[in-house]
Amino acid sequence: DAGITQSPRHKVTETGTPVTLRCHQTENHRYMYWYRQDPGHGLRLIHYSYGVKDTDKGEVSDGYSVSRSKTEDFLLTLESATSSQTSVYFCATGDRETQYFGPGTRLLVL
Amino acid sequence: SQKIEQNSEALNIQEGKTATLTCNYTNYSPAYLQWYRQDPGRGPVFLLLIRENEKEKRKERLKVTFDTTLKQSLFHITASQPADSATYLCALRYSGAGSYQLTFGKGTKLSVIP
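YS: structure for the whole thing
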């Protein structure tokens, strides 16, 4: 997994609570990404970062925010979780062309 | 908006045969196209990248073709083995897209039957 870890790996939470997912890399890659993967939709980009403190929105960014205060960490926050955010979340890092994915976080919002 | 279609949700093939997976795209021409493999419960793993000016790329038993006129990529696994069973994703980076974003297809689940 190219030195990429995600935490937690599994989480169950209740609607309306804040949730933060963490992605940590040891590859010194400039680019980092958060995706969600759902049946029938495939992988969809939520937010991405092209450097420390440099982030931008992806295809499905509503309800999510991100922060990147250092190269190795990229945090994804659900400010107030909803059931529609139940999904598998993947972090990816990479150079200008190739992306390397983490093991994923399964999130269940009840 | 860009659209990527992987024509088959699932493909079953006999061991030893060549598996061929299809990826079609619409609208703008991609700068390059990639194929990833994903096993159940795991993240996708990069396999191959092919650029818009390349027709074919090979890696061991894998071959990717890219036809920008047909807006199609074919992914071949020769001498397929049960261990090749997985979901295969194609992904495109469109020319002009910022920050090297990829757009993924929904994947084709390949089952290689012994």
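YS: worth flagging: Chain B touches chain A through 22 residues (CB under 8 Å).
IM: good catch. Also The radius of gyration of chain B is 14 Å.
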